[in-house]
TrEMBL record:
Highest taxon above the source species: Bacteria
NCBIfam families according to UniProt: IV_pilin_GFxxxE
Keywords from the named record: Membrane, Transmembrane, Transmembrane helix
InterPro entries for the chain: N_methyl_site (IPR012902)
Organism: Campylobacter upsaliensis
Transmembrane segments: 6-25
Protein known as: Periplasmic protein
Amino acid sequence: MKKAFSLLELTIALVIFSIIFMLIAKPLREFYLLHLKSLEQNEVILKLNQTLLNLENILLKCVNLEFTSRNFSCFLKDDESIFVLENGKLKLVNSMLVLKNNMGFYSPKSNFSYFLQNKMDLFKDRGGSFYVLKDGKVELLNPENLQSEGIFYPLKAKIEFKFEDNALKFTLKPKIFNENLKQEALLLDFVRDFKLREQNGVLWIKICVQKTYFSHCLEKMVSL
């Protein structure tokens, strides 16, 4: 009798515990999912904003921009630097600082060699030639064999963006017209949609991101 009573008590206790667990488990699960959604929402919005800002900064440095609704490419110019070629000598006119001997910064003013050396070190490019924009055209210059005179805007690289495999990717080409030294990277993943459209001299960029618990779209306007 005592055994039977103990077994009955145990059964009742298990039933009560199961009911309590079921009552608690549902709100706990909902709270956990809500927390995940909140974290994912913050992450998505932050990444979208940062990506659009990055694209805007890149587009503001673009020349000879070409784009479709899904991708774009352009040449990145160095806005801080201008080359002036006089009497066969190339002078650099800018206000940028260059690290010298790993000890301090140096303003090269009209000294072109530091600029070229920095570029060669940055991209591990030992060729010595570089691309510039002159009168709206891209030209390859060799400091040892300069033929014409005028004002040149140095180009850092060609950059190409494309939307594929639910990701926004880019390729950086320091050599501009060939594949040597090119670098490829992922800018943003989990991209559901990416669109470019031009309207009244303004480029609209729209990016949509789809994750497990949250999806969102943001659009930004960039003046061309």
